Amino acid sequence: MKKILVLGAGLVAGAHVRYLLDQPDFHVTVASRTLSKAQDIIRGHPKGEARQLDVADEAALEDLISQTDLAVSLLPYVHHPLVARLCVKHRKHMVTTSYVKEPMAQLDEAAKEAGIILLNEIGVDPGIDHMMAMEVIHHVQKDGGEITSFSSYAGGLPAPEANTNPFGYKFSWSPKGVLLAGKNPARYLKDGQEINIPGEELFDHYWTVPIEVEGQVIHFEGYPNRDCLPYMAIYGITTAKSMFRGTLRYASWCPTLKKLVDLGLLDEEERDDIAGLTFAQLTARLIGSTGDLKQDLAAYLNIEPDSGVMSNLEWLGLLSDDPLPLQKGAPIDILTARMLAKMQYEEGERDMLILQHEFLAEYSDRKEKITSTMIDFGIPYGDTSMSRTVGLPAAIGVRLILQGKINLTGVHTPVVPEIYEPVLEELEQLGIHFTEEWETLKR
Asked: Which of 9, 158, 165, 240 could crosslink 37 through cysteines, CB 3.0-4.6 Å?
């Protein structure tokens, strides 16, 4: 019986844990700060156990890791390096769905010496996006072609019929993580020119991306996602003239989020002057208003009082007399709590996950445009698409590692055939699949 420790019991843990519990020779312990959340995921399964754990208690964390064969960290990414170091110390494999950051990358040699794999970026974005990309890239390269352009978009969104609020968004994963991602600077390559976008200007740089969803073409907003240039080397397409990775949202998200940034509501510095305030009073304090708050806010943000963005801010409640949800905290924490309260999925509503890659490939005798698309929906009254597309690739990775079908050591992402081929094959069997269109272009 292989022992698996799953750290975290958040929105994407359910499908992951149930897949592992369905395997015949796995025992799964879910450890969470809130014991009831872990219990809700285990649901009394005979091969499951729920444990309460504060990850700040390093001794307790180490004790749990030392007793397992593999640890899965579904915690916020800041905790991954500690979990990884303890896994290296006790020679235990580790899986995460988060980006490899420098503290994780630095453990590569130590993990190899320990004979373990630290498998990262095996969720949906990052994760399935990498695997979809590598399958096409390796196919082109085996046929003697060269990728000259790569662009990718990803978005976790409400399904069209569930798109019922002005922001066009509902939370299916870490609410604060969604907002923090909006502060990241971005870098990409366009026709050989490097484009750099500061984090505070991210939402100024967006454009329309039309994608067909269930027979209907929807014009999404697309904007850059982090620094994608390192993936040119990771993907083996260093000679490409264009390289882009972006995020998809429904229309009005970017201009509205830009004004929330300008207002200071994504700031992370804790304030101790908000106790007893209403949202209107906080907004007035942020902009120095002593008169007509709506007029002053419009002037401060350089928008019209009757604009769509102002309407969105009013819907969120920034001009309301509702009390703040916190007595002390950072503006981003206040915004997170408010958005989470206003932007929840209703019972039975579907979420939707979209991934779309577009490649240009050049061969000696032709050019080809390849479009690879995945559109996945949540199951009404069941798992969300986000839970499935994040949790299942990671769970399959866990199984392959523990069954000796992935024998790599060190820090890895799913960009090699030994990982992505069996994972994509099983995802297809689980109903998570993508379609490819190949079009020959004139030279």
From this structure: 9
Find the largest Cα–Cα distance for the chain.
70
Amino acid at 14: G
Distance of CA 84 to the CA centre of its chain: 20
C-alpha separations of 191 from 150, 221, 326, 397 in Å: 11, 21, 47, 36
- 202, 186 contact by CB (below 8 A): yes
| Catalytically annotated residues | 125
Q: Are 351 and 385 in contact (CB under 8 A)?
A: yes
Residues 6+ apart with CB under 8 A from 390: 12, 16, 97, 123, 124, 127, 173
pLDDT tens readout for residues 56-95: 999 999 999 999 999 999 998 899 999 999 999 999 999 9
Cβ pair 353, 389 in contact under 8 A? yes
**DSSP 3-state of 428:** helix
Backbone angles phi, psi at 166, to 5 degrees: -65, -20
> What are 29's two structure tokens?
């312990």
Q: What percent of the chain stands above pLDDT 90?
A: 93
- Mapped onto helix, strand or coil, the DSSP state of residue 241 is coil
Residue 325 neighbours by CB distance under 10 Å: 15
pTM reported for the whole predicted model: 0.90
What is the rounded CA–CA span in Å between residue 244 and residue 229? Answer: 8
Residues 6+ apart with CB under 8 A from 317: 279, 338, 342
- Residue 31 phi, psi (nearest 5): -115, 125
* Both structure tokens of 133: 């990309």
- Interatomic CA distance for residues 16 and 74, integer angstroms: 10
User: Which CATH number applies to 2-120?
Assistant: 3.40.50.720
Question: Which residues pair with residue 368 across a beta bridge?
Answer: 361, 440
Per DSSP, the three-state class of 128 is helix
Tell me the C-alpha distance between 67 and 60, whole Å.
11
Cβ(277)–Cβ(285) below 8 Å: yes
Contact 83, 59 (CB under 8 A): no
